[in-house]
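= Paired protein data =
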Amino acid sequence: MTEVDEQAGVDAGAADAGASGPVIELVGVRKEFGDFVAVDRVELSIRRGEFFSLLGPSGCGKTTLLKMIAGFEQPTSGQVLLEDEDVSGTPPHRRNVNTVFQQYALFPHMSVFENVAFGLRAKKVDKVDVRRRSTEMLEVVRLAEFANRRPPQLSGGQQQRVALARALVNLPSALLLDEPLAALDLKLREAMQLELKRIQREVGITFVFVTHDQGEALTMSDRIAVMSEGVVEQIGTPEEIYHRPASLFVAGFIGSANLLPGTVSGHDGDDTVVDLECGVTVRACGVHPPVVGAPASIMIRPERLRVTSADGGDGRSLEGTVRDVIFQGAVVRIQLVLADGTEVVTLVDPDDDLPFLRPGSPVYVCWNPGAVYLLAGRPVRPGANSTDIDQVEAAL
């Protein structure tokens, strides 16, 4: 068994047992730049062997949070704990974490092997161990055959894997990644998402990944912390974040959602009855049903709506007019307009035979019980969150 495998086994066992506590813990962390509060009272724990993502729009504080974990910034107040030790004032080179940035900062005059081995040699590791560990790590990232090449001779994805190998070969407590996929084109970025997750599982080291790309976070993460304006809005698994958002911001930021405002008019068992502003009364599920008369909104994901030519008559439908039919390959995107002008988006299979789906046609969108999720408050812009360019640009 190699040293990398041994470390992965130790990390996996500790994670299963839960005996060693979190690898990284932030306790009431706050960061101020003059009068500006970049991060405000953040509390979170990152587990051993976990792929943890910090997700949010530009300027939300996620990179500042990562820099405080790395030691490049110190918190104004609060504690950063690494392996149960307070490292809030410890310089970066004395923290057992490594960071991979958007710019990989590889040494162009060195070979791939020499780049990976650089940190071990700086630590005066025995030459035999340097060669063994560096070779093993290049095998993990599938670049052993490129050991003698130099970084300029590699593709962007290969250079990124070299940077990962160099950061991981020292077996840090955690690897911190600041939007490392941002410079790659779409196809390569999607492939690297899966490759990153594979590498993380194989080495068993905690990854803390910063991104503004919801798809990246959903694809790779064990858990996600969604941030907005320096505050953590929600921490949960990708499934929890997507299907049970804690706030209107999370619902609108993660994926595509139809957000329809209304007022709570009653309760029916576990469901809350909501009178929507578009004139329809619906039932919604939610964790904490608000009191009667409280402002509320419902969230319906586009993929949970189906289009019909007739009202189902069960109180689980909305009437609208087709505005646009857009073929997107795997799905057909339908944009509807309700009677009050609110836009709603749904998705249908290209193989579905729906001859009535033409711009200007009256249709109904229906849903199954449990598809409507209740949220407190009202959205800034009702309806689909992915049809207004100003709203999308503001989110990113």
In short: The radius of gyration is 24 Å. The first strand starts at residue 24 and ends at 33. The CA atoms of residues 193 and 371 lie 29 Å apart. Confidence is low (pLDDT under 50) at residues 1-19, 388-396.
